[in-house]
């Protein structure tokens, strides 16, 4: 079954919570460990990871999942909320005249980001100018000039001058008719005293409205000290994370944001001047944890649940675990899934299922499943209330009648009944089980190929989802 291929152990622990509506301490501990692992491998700084995971742990044990929400979604939402809380919204950048100073180590992507940001402001109808004050790196002037040409924005630099403060001052005068002044600075290989002195001097000369720290997404545990030193020197209002088109997840940005009490302004996603995005928490966090679109998933699940409950007040998904599993229950499950949208889109949103898994399925697998679900729905509409409540009463002659009434064929009706039986059997095995049995059962199902749920398009969407 598809779950076998998911790989990520975080996803594995989350999937174990699939059938549960309550979490025990072991579950929470396991999942918190996996979250720690994910964050650390995304380069989030150790003490921050510990802080984050302890608040996730507290909330996961302390808060009851809202009615109709599975333990898995409950935990996902907590993790998501805690991370959103930490990174916050993107740095406020009013579309008005301002001076922005860029700081960061050599090679972090300052010059590229200066041109990118200038291009971005120009698309908002403003007139940006980039001022290059790097007198340290050979070729810095040419590089900045060329990038600004490509971005079609004004540029100022002075290849014959070796005083960055003078260049900054004259640059502001020379580009006085621009609305946005982006001041690019030199970097060093490491934090050296003269670099800090230099940027402090530029800072007091240009008196920026905002100072942004440019960080390579691949920066690891060094982000903390760098952020602190630049923050002490010039005050950091926001972070630009570059090279997110690579494999690095950019966890260092979280550290920097936490250290400077700021936020993320821009994301760099390539080498050309257009490869820039304003920061948006959802995409960044989903990527950080290596999961699908968390926000959309949790919103959609919530909505689907609410609507299902509204549509039929008598039907409570939790009842399935107690009474018998009827065709009516199966129909409700399918309706809830249907409300979440086209199956392939839903799969894209499910953490870990996106891309990889879909690529392994035949092209039309999604359509086939969706078509089949629709057929089943039509068939169930042709059944009487009594038949829906007691599928065992459906003999050969009733199968014939239902097939005719629904405009399908007997084989499809029998497939539906078969599918129901498999789901019922699976659920029976869950009923009356202790927690430990439940976990063993889940494991077994994952190994064996998912009980009866595989036929409805993957365990992530199984009847307990
Ligand atoms: N792939 C990729 N490369 C980038 C990005 N931003 C910068 N670079 C590259 O990183 C290198 C250093 O960038 P540069 O702007 O010169 O850094 P600076 O020394 O801080 O000014 C250059 O080769 C850039 O092309 C990005 O978002 N994606
Ligand atoms: Mg540079």
Structural notes for this entry:
Residues 2-87 form the Signal recognition particle SRP54 helical bundle domain. GTP binds at residues 104-111, 184-188, 242-245. Keywords: Cytoplasm, GTP-binding, Hydrolase, Nucleotide-binding, Ribonucleoprotein, RNA-binding, Signal recognition particle. The chain starts with 8 loop residues before the first helix and ends in a 17-residue tail after the last helix. It folds into two domains: 2-82 and 290-461, 434 Repressor (Amino-terminal Domain); 98-279, Rossmann fold (3-Layer(aba) Sandwich), CATH 3.40.50.300. 54% of the residues lie in helices and 8% in strands. The protein has helices spanning 9-16, 25-41, 46-62, 71-87, 110-123, 140-151, 164-174, 193-206, 223-234, 251-260, 281-288, 294-311, 327-339, 343-349, 356-360, 365-381, 385-389, 396-406, 410-430, 435-448; strands spanning 98-103, 128-132, 154-156, 180-184, 210-216, 238-242, 264-268, 276-278. The protein is built from 20 helices and eight strands. Strand 7 (264-268) and strand 8 (276-278) form a beta hairpin. Guanosine-5'-diphosphate is lined by residues 104, 106-112, 187, 214, 242-243, 245, 268-271, 275. Guanosine-5'-diphosphate (GDP) binds at residues 104, 106-112, 187, 214, 242-243, 245, 268-271, 275.
